[in-house]
Amino acid sequence: MDRRKLAEGILAAARKAAGKILEIYNGDFAVRSKNDESPVTDADEAGEKIILAELAVIAPAIPVIAEESVAAGRIPEIGDGPFFLVDPLDGTREFINRNGEFTVNIALIENGIPTLGAVVLPALDTAYWVDGEGVAWRQKGTAAAESISTRPPAPDGLVVVASKSHRDSKTDEYLARLPVKEVISAGSSAKLCRVAEGSADLYPRLGRTMEWDIAAGHAVLRAAGGRIERLDNGEPLTYGKEGLDNPHFAAWGR
């Protein structure tokens, strides 16, 4: 497997899906409810269709677990080999509210670890990804891409990024035990990218997430020098878990 070409293909697929999603975002779109009562739009489905087609070309032997396909009952066998996790539109509520903080997410999982990935913010014209050498990058608009890394926390306290749509009392109780100097809000997997680029130190999530929600952001964070720990046992968060849901976790820069 040529990792450089695979990383480039993952980013290209995410960008292509982002273009279609942005087209829908800038027009009129309907909002429907899935069986779990979470919202879904044409953009979720159109983005996933593009990504699945692209991945079938660049890596046809690697199975893909994608959010909307799982919702429709299509869950491939992944065995012990590598697999992709795809969330074509993370932050559907942000998409519906038109605040720009939604993302396209593709991650490659190997041995339970997200090793390659891309996170694209269509409305903000920004992309984060891991290249074939395992380095994390960010590109804003047509500016030159730049490598990113996490930062050590400042002596006067942590900058925490918290969910715009899902912050709750459990999160506040967790943060009350830490030396926090500032809490900023963001939507979708962009929170993980904030930690990866060194504009925040910590992202805690004490609510339900699925593996595809965070795998691509986790790949970027990991390549940038950060980590995600389970809050139940302090162990590193891994993927391919039964049910595909995550425990509560904390994403740290250093």
Describe this protein with a few key phrases.
single chain, 14 strands, 2 domains, 254 residues, D-Maltodextrin-Binding Protein, domain 2
What does this structure look like?
There is one protein chain. The chain has 2 domains: 145 residues, Fructose-1,6-Bisphosphatase, Chain A, domain 1, CATH 3.30.540; 95 residues, D-Maltodextrin-Binding Protein, domain 2 (3-Layer(aba) Sandwich), CATH 3.40.190.80. Helix 1 packs antiparallel against helix 2 and helix 6 packs parallel to helix 7. The model has no long low-confidence stretch (mean pLDDT 94). It is 31% helix and 28% strand. The protein has 7 helices and 14 strands. The strands form 4 sheets. Strands 3-4-5-6-7-8-9 form a 7-stranded mixed sheet, with helices on both faces. A 3-stranded antiparallel sheet has the order 12-14-13, with helices on both faces. It has 254 residues and is of the alpha+beta class.
Sum this structure up briefly.
With 254 residues, the protein is an alpha+beta fold. It has helices at 3-25, 42-58, 67-71, 92-97, 169-175, 190-196, 211-223; strands at 31-33, 39-41, 64-66, 83-90, 103-110, 113-121, 126-130, 136-140, 146-147, 158-163, 180-186, 202-205, 227-230, 249-252.
CATH class of the largest domain: Alpha Beta
Q: How does the helix and strand content classify structurally?
A: alpha+beta
Question: What would you say the CATH architecture of the largest domain is?
Answer: 2-Layer Sandwich
Mean pLDDT: 94
What general form does the structure show?
Answer: globular
